[in-house]
Amino acid sequence: MALTLTREKAQPAIVLRSPGYWQGVLARLSRDRIAMIALIVVALLILMAILAPYLAPDDPTRGSLARRLKPLGTPGHVLGTDELGRDMLSRLIWGARLSLVMGVVPVPVAFVLGSAIGIIAGYAGGLTNSIIMRTVDVFYAFPSVLLAVALSGTLGSGLTNALVSLTVVFIPQIARVAESVTTQVHRLDYVEAARASGAGSLAIVRVHILGNVLAPIFVFSTSLISVSMILAAGLSFLGLGVRPPDAEWGLMLNTLRTAIYINPTIAALPGVMIFITSIAFNLFSDGLRNAMDVKT
Amino acid sequence: MQTPPAIIDIRNLAVTFRGGSRKVRAVNGVDLTVDRGEVLALLGESGSGKSVTLRSLLRLHPKGTLIEGEIKVAGQDVMRLGRRALADLRGGTVSMIFQEPRLALDPVYRVGDQIVETIRRHMPVSRSEARARALRLFEDVRIPSPESRLGNYPHEMSGGMLQRSMIAMALACDPAILLADEPTTALDATVQIQILLLLRELQTRRGLAVVFVTHDIGVAAQVADKVAVMYAGRIVESGHIADVIHNPRHPYTQGLLDARVELAQGSSRLRTIEGAPPDLSALPPGCAFAPRCGRVAETCRTVVPELHSGSTSVACFEPLRG
Questions:
Q1: Mutate which of B51, B108, B115, B131 to disrupt the A interface (most A C-beta within 10 Å)?
Q2: What domains appear along chain B, each with residue ranges and CATH number?
Q3: What does the DSSP 8-state code read for residue B154?
Q4: pLDDT digits (tens, 9 = 90+) for A251-283
Q5: Interface pTM (ipTM) of the complex?
Q6: Given an 8 Å threshold on Cβ–Cβ distance, is A8 in contact with B106?
Q7: Which of A108, A130, A88, A121 is nearest to A271 (CA)?
Q8: Which domains does chain A have, with CATH numbers?
């Protein structure tokens, strides 16, 4: 923040044609080293997923019982092989595709729907708030895993259904955050000041509520990406999400669990990938929150 | 009728909050008039209904609040205005400044942008015209290097600067009436004087009618032409500021004057008014000040005194220096 201040003081004349809000966010973000490293990691993971067919040294589904659970550094299989003798490196590279899709896709959808529900409830207040939020609470009362399993079980297995059920799991969580920040913001003086200057409800929500509320909801939502990946893994394990032999990190982690006493390093590899991915998303979202916050 | 009608005319205003199970009568039969170019100070302690009265002029109360009585502002009947007309009145004809400028400006937008937005809400001007107008307003409220200050976020400004920006924003659409809700309370003493002088200057230059809510009788003396002292949702004394200060007739006004910090010198203790303000959901049947009053008589406890006009109007059965 100190950096920003000195920069703005150094060139005061630019103000009337000042850079837009997002330009400022980008400038601040690019100065945050940790966030930039996290962003590079995320970008590499996405690139890896897209280029999987070219990067993977082997077919991720072709196994051989002759070379099961080879350790790290085996010639031809740098990261060893899994319990069916498939090349781990290839499976990890291919696995990025489904894992990223299942981790990332439900969150933005839930972000839009959950924010809308929460903001409406928070702004309306009173009875409307009670009706919406108590309905949301019914969903929130179930543990995430249980709800996701119940929904996927009802909808049937498959990638799309797993995505739908994960989205439904996240909507109440995001809606609750959105509702609480909206309720706080909408009691503040500047909302009353806006009303006193003739702003209608729509303008107040669009300008003052959204402007103050989206950043915290956004940051909370990005932290759900890692949760989403874990839940997706759980669904796959139960045969409700991705099914073998497709490669997905969560599924791999679960099928390799039997090998944990024989070759623990191999069994841990998908977990390492999930760990790296979720840490990168979390650190990046932290950096984004700092960059988006113009208040302090 | 040679005199032009008052720009603010409130008759028998009563405001009741119905949040929760209890009804709270925050304002209880208030009559007020303010002429064009006149400054009225509403004086009273917390919970006396002064801010509620002020907000009634724009119908800025939470949902479910009952407002009774007549409110006429600049020839319009505020009680009967539709949504659209009310929005035009707010910020257009009547605008408001708040106690805590740090909270009254949105922290995530540049101050200049907030003023531009207010201007464009009420005036059919382009963005660049609105910006030029905002710049002139910043010059009017004496903000140094106004051009760069327009691009500041609220947290980059000091309290005094923010209150100046707030005033600029309030004056953005040339209102006829300015409502000020304790605009100097949150500021330190030196800044307070500057803001008061600025308000007084802008008021004279623009011929504004101002309703100024304060609990500080010294501040009222600085800015106001007239003063109305409120207690428990009623006006207990009103009149020209000099008359009320030099010749208070209501015991409560006298108490407020005695309680000024400036009077306590050296080791002498501050003089206070004994007791606490009444519970607004259970007002006593008679004069609300009777339980704390040194001159209380038998009638005070049973009958609510009317506001009798004289050199100053006073609602008391036992006024001082009748």
A1: B108
A2: 8-314 (3.40.50.300)
A3: G
A4: 888 888 888 888 888 888 888 888 888 888 888
A5: 0.80
A6: no
A7: A88
A8: 107-242 (1.10.3720.10)
